[in-house]
Amino acid sequence: MREIMSTHKRLTFLVLFLGVTAMLFWSGSRYPSLDEKAIMGGQAALEDPITFEATLQAQPSDGVRIRIFYSTVNWIETNLEGMAFGLVVGACLLTIMSSLPVRGHSNGFLNTLLGVGIGTPLGVCVNCAAPVAKGMHDAGARLETTLATMFSSPTLNIVIISMLFSIFPLYIIVIKLAFTVGFIAFLLPLLCRWVFSHERLATYQDSQCPIPSASKGPTDESWFAALQSVVVDLVQSLIYIGARTIPLMLLAGLLGAIVANVMPLTEMVATETTLLSLLTVAVIGIFLPVPVAFDIVVVAVLITAGAPMAYSMTLLFTLGIFSIYPFGIIWTSISRRVAITLTVVLVILGVVAGLVAQEFHRAELNEMFEYLEQQN
Predict the structure, then answer these.
(1) How many helices and strands in the chain, by DSSP H and E?
(2) Which residue range forms the structural domain that includes residue 182?
(3) In terms of pTM, does the model score above 0.85?
(4) pLDDT tens across 91-108, in order?
(5) Would 43 be classed as within a structural domain?
């Protein structure tokens, strides 16, 4: 009984710290920022190829190297708060979950639902959710929970969904949500069970967890001693997560800036729609490490400018749900097979979503033309 009380003391401090951190971030930064983007909708300004705001403004006369450098710096500055929050949450979950005797359910679909419940309120982009996923995985969370948390954070947040409904036609919203929910809730647990079976099994065996279970402390541990222990554990976890994610974060920002400036989306979607060009757009969309809601604003601008619906829908699905940064985290923390397979599946889904949207768009235009002919 005393051993249980000692564990509860530490968990109390951990949960309290996580809750306070989350509330401060959500109320002071994340949700006010999302609300502002929701109000502006498709009119939000894009000052950089991969960020909303740009401290360093590139001029028409600047070369590619200067533009890449500016974009990298702007990306880091834009994602600084979200990344810091992701690192702290990842460290907290790493410490909390390593203290729990049970880290998931035997049912993969339930584990996926748990991940959606964790990721949806986070409200951060997939890049900032990557350190969270890293902490969860290394603490022994089930594979389905880890991946669902990362994918649901930038796609299923209530503000993001409300932005979809306020900006786009119904058929675009339905396609976007159907493909996103279908991937996270159904395809992801099936992939974990049948394709990632080895990686999944490793997360179902606590003995193979990269981080051993945390010590429960002495049975007569005081509240002050428990607090001291929690502070030490959190600092160690933060150092552990930071050392393994920050270098990849900086590399992802640089690579994203290179691709965005060498292969601008506005030029890509101006070409004739072919299967190869649509595949290229999907790959670029999956690659770019853009901030949350960036996909919605970009696609709204593209549709207004008359971009083909196939390109627009493909980007609406692929931009934001994944990027080179979580790809690197999964590659180094889980396995190469998981990282590559998820990328291929998401690219294929993005292309299919674009083709489906294009057919709906054509049908809508045909109905409009028929109506106009009847009126005349």
Answers:
(1) 17, 0
(2) 2-30+51-375
(3) yes
(4) 999 988 877 766 678 899
(5) no
